[in-house]
Amino acid sequence: MILALAMLIAGILLLIKGADWLVEGSSSLAKRFGVSDLMIGLTVVAFGTSMPELLVNIVSSVEGANDIAIGNIVGSNIANILLVLGIASIIRNVAVKTSTVWNEIPLALLAVLVLQLMANDSIIDHYPVSELSRSDGLAFLAFFLIFLWYVAKMRRREDEIENGFVERGVPVSIGFVSIGLGLLLLGGKLTVDGAIDIASLLGISQAFIGLTIVAIGTSLPELVTSVLAAVRKKADIAVGNVVGSNIFNVFWIMGVGTIIHPVRLDPALNADLFVAILATVVLFIAVHTGHVHRRIFLFWRQRQEHVIGRTDGVIMLLLYVAYLGYLVWRG
Prior knowledge:
The chain is mainly α.
């Protein structure tokens, strides 16, 4: 058990550090070849920070750990909203851009809705099993290309800001990229193997490990980024970071992962997909009312500004704790 836990922790740490070095090396190379900070942010950084979830998804799919593959994505999306934004909004009220409210949050909701529909072949088409096939993966990637087009269009409307990407020598940059990729591959393998061993030793489901420990571990970069953004009074970055990550998780990571290896869905995971949908709806309500409970139990009270308040943050964290309690009860 100690060895399995050490493998899991080491794997998550390697994933985080590997992604960091991959982004640093790739950004440096792009900068040296004249790529703008805007395009580096849209491509290198965005893709690099999603690499931990991608590697875990690919390794677990190839090794037949389907519950970890899907559980990591769904659990990460739930943790990003209820845990990450919950903590960030408790630290400081989180202001949300209008484009995020009306475009990106609904797109994040669309992503989890599409995931649930595509992952339920047995219910919708009465197939013997439910599976995310390679054709589903291609559809996810098609949605992802539309999302990239939207992001590029939105970012070009804004003034390009110097993001502080460091330009290093080519050999050093290649070294960062190579080591980063190596750490990601090793970290993904250790994380999945450790999670499988822990589930086996404790007699609990792989889905539970994927939805909790692995999901929270791969969400740590988003948590750190969002908390620091809240502390530095740039809380709008926190929401964009989380919502963008959730869209990436479904359309990009599930798309690539299922093309490499189809993934079967345990019907029990439908409950977790529903929680992911509910969490996104709660976020949408929060940015409109400022107080989730007023919207649910009384009536719609539209605010002129879009803010996630401290009360909302507390409610989100309580919902996440309740969800974890449900997972423990379910086993």
